[in-house]
Amino acid sequence: MVRIAVDLNRCQGYAQCAFLAPEIFAMHGEEALLYDPEADEAQRAKLAQAAAACPVQAILVDAVDVPAEAVSGAR
Amino acid sequence: MLGDGSLERLKREGRIVVVGASLAGLRAAETLRAEGFVGSLTMIGDEPHEPYDRPPLSKQVLLGRASADHTALPRLRSVEATWRLGVAATGLDMAARRVRLADGDEVPYDRLLIATGVRARPWPHEAEAELDGVFVLRTSDDSAALARRLDAGPKRVLVIGAGFTGSEIASACRERGLAVTVAERGAAPLVGALGGVVGAVAAEMQREHGVDLRCGVMVTALEGDASGRVRAAQLSDGSTVETDVVIVSLGATRNTEWLAGSGLGAGPRGIACDAGCRAFDIRGIVTDDIYAAGDVARCPHPLFGYQFLSLEHWGNAVTQAGIAAHNMLSESTDRIPHLEVPAFWSSQFGVNIKSVGVPSLGTEILVSQGSLKDHRFLGVYGYQGRVIGAVAFDHGRWLPFYQELIETTAPFPPAFPTVDRTSDGQRPLDADFPDPSVPTHGPTVTLGGYAPADRRMTFTPAH
């Protein structure tokens, strides 16, 4: 599982991500981007490609393993 | 403090507590670790969830393209914190440097960051708000519950309030083929944030997509059936809307009640802080050890006459949190000011809306590119002869240029020709913002005057 957020202030709708990882990113109308905030582990390589290809570097992806940073209500 | 080693000691063995475990809180925690803080870090959040992203909750989730409990924020680095989630902070003892929690526990700190954000303003009539089928949308739990109800195929959805959130909800419902009525007290959707000229375009977009948009009306009552399910709404024009889902989108309330009586300069307009994110106490004196960031903070902005701005914007939360964290660990001469130009986005009815600056401060608007009729344009806002904001409808790529005009206080109207200038852009128009004395649900920027701790606001009792 990989978590994703896109800084849509930066995003300018170049749609590179939608070409490289269409399962995760899709244009919605001419300029707006819709994305799945969570991708399967199997999509990690594609996702990394899409993030790297973004001309404005708007795609944020987990840099640390989820289990290592899992949280709980415990002290 | 300078040169006495106390800062090094803080970084090595200090205790930093972050109240608010959402976007601002998480990004601040990451910055603290990135800048070499190896002491103890405690994250306190009233929701039981780890930090998650809210923008998808009114878009992807309602469209059924993502699940509400899977919008957790990506982790940019390890924060190695003690997490106290599902436990609200209930009090602050500034002298003893302790945060009180709802479970009776107390957490001591050397530095405190407050990023408690805002919550959805509920429907004011409590019994009506309790009716089954009445929702607000702010948290992932709200979004999950609403998405479930939309999946069940309601006959009609009523959205109360046509600000950004309300409009996005209406858009998602229409895209799903649901019948939607929107009731807005103002003259048009988005009017509080973008004014009447742009509001008219937003109204046209809603109607073209089949929304039953009613402006200039208030919902006066919600009616339930015998089993406690909402079934109709009464409007101030005497009409009735039969509906089985009501979404109350009347803006947000700042989460500052827990600070009442603490001595911190906090109130209904947020927590007053300086440009370096240090919070003021009620005497108007800046504290050394308490910082604020995100939706709950209000701080003076030099580009906007040093007025105190509260910004309910994603980008503001990220930037301000990073600056607060940096400044917490820095000598006074190494601190950085929060000078970012405000920016936000929304997507609705197939159109991408983006803005920079503070349009709601503008008095005039010039449609410098594109045309209103096509719902594709760039609007520049002017205030006292200078450019103060801009909004783009499917024209986002031009915004960095206009941001520079705002940053350099360029003259309004801009003296140069622009590409794709149409007949709409012949001269500036009255931006047509509602009278500020008339309450509207929806500006995402709140102006709080000049005083560090505006007494009328700061001392308003919580009850």
TrEMBL record, chain A:
SUPFAM superfamilies: 4Fe-4S ferredoxins. Signal peptide: none annotated. InterPro entries: 3Fe4S_ferredoxin (IPR001080), Fe-S_cluster_ET (IPR051269). It comes from Streptomyces coacervatus. Its cofactor is [3Fe-4S] cluster. It holds the Pfam family Fer4_13. Ferredoxins are iron-sulfur proteins that transfer electrons in a wide variety of metabolic reactions. This is Ferredoxin. Keywords: 3Fe-4S, Electron transport, Iron, Iron-sulfur, Metal-binding, Transport.
Automatic annotation (TrEMBL), chain B:
Transmembrane segments: none annotated. The keyword Oxidoreductase applies. Residues 421-430 have a biased composition (Basic and acidic residues). Keywords: FAD, Flavoprotein, Oxidoreductase. It holds the Pfam family Reductase_C. Residues 15-321 form the FAD/NAD(P)-binding domain. Its cofactor is FAD. Residues 344-415 form the Reductase C-terminal domain. Residues 421-451 are annotated as: Disordered. InterPro entries: FAD-oxidoreductase/Apoptosis, FAD/NAD-bd_sf, FAD/NAD-binding_dom, FAD/NAD-linked_Rdtase_dimer_sf, Reductase_C. PANTHER family: APOPTOSIS-INDUCING FACTOR 1 (PTHR43557), RIESKE DOMAIN-CONTAINING PROTEIN-RELATED (PTHR43557:SF2). This is FAD-dependent oxidoreductase. It comes from Streptomyces coacervatus.
